[in-house]
Amino acid sequence: MLTHIRVTQTVLAGLACTICTLADCAAPPVKTVKPDGTPNRAAWMAQSGFGVMTHYLISPQGNSPAEKTADLNRIIDTFDVETYVKQIDETRADWVIFTLCQGTGFLSSRCEYLDKLEAGYTPRRDLILEIGRKLHERGKRLILYLPGAHTGADPNVKRILGLGGDGYADRHNAFVREYSQKMGRSCDGWWFDSCGRQDNTAWEKEMAACRAGNPDSVVAFSGAEFCASGGNLKPVCPIEDYHAGEIHLLEDGRIRTDFIWPPGKGIVISTDAKLRRTGQAAQYYLPDSQFIDNVQWHCLLPIDLTFNPAVPNQYCHYTDKELFQFVDRIKSVGGAITINVPIDRTNGHIPQDSHAQLVRLGRHLKNDRDGLGPTRSGR
After folding, report:
1. For the chain, what are the domain ranges?
2. CATH 3.40.50.1220 is the classification of domain 9-367
3. Contact between residue 278 and residue 266 where contact means Cβ atoms under 8 Å apart
4. C-alpha–C-alpha distance, residues 5 and 257, integer Å
5. What tens digit of pLDDT does each residue of 235-260 get?
6. Considering the entire predicted model, what is its pTM?
7. What DSSP string describes 192-232?
């Protein structure tokens, strides 16, 4: 079992100089068995190149529930699945993480279980089923995003399911189970946000709901270990398949694990253009193993659009050299990475600049696999 590390700035200054590309240093074989001897269900993530996430969030407008539902259907109907999947294919990404919902209270795909309790918050179109099938036609996988069961995010969903009331956990699991059974093998995993610790029995029930339609689904629960832990990298769920691994900021090729919050007050720019919080030391981390506490290493990195309002968007723009070196470092220890990019909510297209950088990353990784050496670009 890997003991997770807290690395000082002094040590990391040296580490930053040793980051190498896959062409320069041979990565060890990805382990398909975890340190405890059980199968590594998420090994395919480490064996692949990278994944792409898009936060497709719907905020329908209207003066009445009926008007908002009509606007929800109008918005979902404009999503261009063919172009979206074509763009993903052009990047050579191996999987997609796609949001079912987050914060707005409206879902991106139909749910009969929720509609029977209270209609109006899910569209008539089964968007994620279409996306999942199209991705699988191209040999790619789909992971679905949801806020954690016990967070107050997505107020309509949690209100309808009765958050805090008797039987809530069972109702939430039934809600997830319907999606899992409907998707079947077109859904390969789940990523849950803003999760707190609970006993393994509760985790097992949630994971069973996720795997109702695909027993091989990989599941992660985010405890903000890589962005707000201050260096405590222990997984919030000890039996999850892979780390959620949400990152807010890279600095000099390293993950900042100190929580930069709240926006505005106390957030300053240092003389060397680094983002700092007054009275709080910057903390850094880089992986040195495929696992942390028996869980497959994975991170979720935003580019071109921040996850954290206290981190301005310009700090999420990385040159090709910065991005490629970070990805190479992750893969050199058997880790996996998903890169979040913006999405046009009017049609589901990935913006040109973000898409182009992912295309270059895919080419870079392909060249490494083919032994052609790293690509060069000046972005």
Report:
1. 9-367
2. no
3. yes
4. 12
5. 999 999 999 999 999 999 999 999 99
6. 0.91
7. EES-----HHHHHHHHHHHTSS-TT-EEEE---TTTSSTT-
